[in-house]
């Protein structure tokens, strides 16, 4: 596991809107996550699809609280939480985690968007959140690696519109942004970590390869930024860290049937509905 972030890395995050940390997690540890996730019947059963507006569907599972699983151990690990707190400058809590399941030849795309395009609708007043993208499989051009627009977080929160069952920014504005700012494809190996600002524009293409591209994304909110209204994601809940060396104690723990209620259903995920002003 990594050491605390240097001042230079913190500055780079705030300038670029993201920070790439190769080899942040031990490969053996991530191999346990991969095996557990692939064989996790509860995780698979709780997965749902979101059409991408490009003819494909991306599959994911989503949960609000870490749980006593290998996934939760990663999300509560001291090095990861400590890095997020260095970037945000205060205590953070676990906002939610998700497993993105881009299966071979079938994994859909994510449209260009900002995470705060969703989370603003949930009552988070400030963009004082951070996403931790953890590569479970190799992320390549062919299987739909993440793309980011460097420095796009300085544009502030942009208006979003529905694209399939996802949120996306206006194509005309996107074209202008991409003419002025650099787009980067983030190629990753298992255990690599990408931390990114909630206003950083990002997307990923469909997986047209013969190889899966699964990733886990742990999202955190600043304690002082607890949403002012209830939504399908939680307000401030104290996060109990675990020592990095204790993560492997959870190596065989995946979701059990008793955890089923911890995983969100497709109907409960109201992110795009909130964007459209639709309520159930």
Mean pLDDT score: 94
Rounded to the nearest angstrom, the distance between the terminal CA atoms is 43 Å
- Briefly note the structural class of the backbone: alpha+beta
> Could you tell me the number of beta strands?
13
As a percent range, the share of helical residues equals: 10-25%
The number of distinct helices, counting runs of at least 4 residues, comes to 8
- The strand order across the widest sheet is 1-11-6-13-4-3-2
Strand content: 25-35%
**What is the molecular shape?**
globular
SSE ordering: HEHHEEHHEEHEEEEHEEEEH
- Which radius of gyration do the C-alpha atoms yield? 17 Å
Keywords:
alpha+beta, seven-stranded antiparallel β-sheet, four-stranded antiparallel β-sheet, 24% helix, 25% strand, globular
Q: What's the layout of helices and strands?
A:
Elements: H1 7-16, E1 18-21, H2 27-39, H3 41-45, E2 48-51, E3 57-63, H4 70-76, H5 78-88, E4 92-102, E5 110-113, H6 115-119, E6 129-135, E7 146-149, E8 160-163, E9 166-169, H7 171-180, E10 183-186, E11 193-196, E12 202-204, E13 213-222, H8 271-276
Antiparallel strand pairs: 1-11, 2-3, 3-4, 4-13, 5-12, 6-11, 6-13, 7-10, 7-12, 8-9
Condensed summary:
The chain has 280 residues and is α+β, with helices and mostly antiparallel strands.
């Amino acid at each position: 596991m990594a050491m605390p972030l240097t001042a230079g890395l913190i500055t780079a995050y705030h300038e670029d809107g993201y920070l790439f940390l190769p080899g942040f997690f031990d490969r053996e540890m991530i191999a346990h996550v991969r095996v557990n996730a692939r064989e996790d019947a509860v995780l698979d059963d709780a997965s749902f699809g979101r059409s991408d507006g490009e003819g494909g569907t991306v599959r994911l599972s989503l949960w609000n609280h870490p749980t006593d699983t290998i996934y939760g151990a990663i999300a509560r690990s001291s090095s990861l939480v400590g890095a997020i707190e260095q970037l945000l400058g205060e205590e953070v809590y676990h906002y939610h985690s998700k497993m993105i399941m881009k299966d071979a030849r079938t994994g859909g795309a994510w449209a260009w968007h900002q995470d705060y395009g969703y989370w603003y609708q949930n009552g988070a007043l400030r963009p004082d959140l951070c996403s931790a993208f953890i590569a479970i499989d190799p992320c390549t051009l062919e299987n739909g690696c993440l793309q980011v627009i460097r420095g796009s977080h300085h544009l502030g929160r942009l208006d979003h519109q529905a694209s399939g069952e996802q949120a996306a920014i206006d194509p005309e504005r996107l074209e202008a942004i991409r003419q002025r700012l650099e787009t980067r494809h983030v190629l990753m190996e298992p255990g690599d970590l990408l931390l990114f600002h909630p206003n950083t524009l990002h997307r990923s293409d469909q997986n047209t390869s013969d190889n899966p591209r699964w990733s886990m994304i742990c999202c955190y909110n600043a304690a002082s930024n607890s949403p002012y209204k209830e939504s399908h994601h939680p307000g401030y809940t104290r996060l109990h860290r675990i020592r990095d060396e204790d993560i492997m104690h959870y190596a065989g723990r995946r979701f059990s049937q008793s955890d089923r209620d911890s995983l969100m259903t497709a109907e409960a995920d109201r992110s795009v509905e909130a964007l459209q002003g639709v309520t159930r």
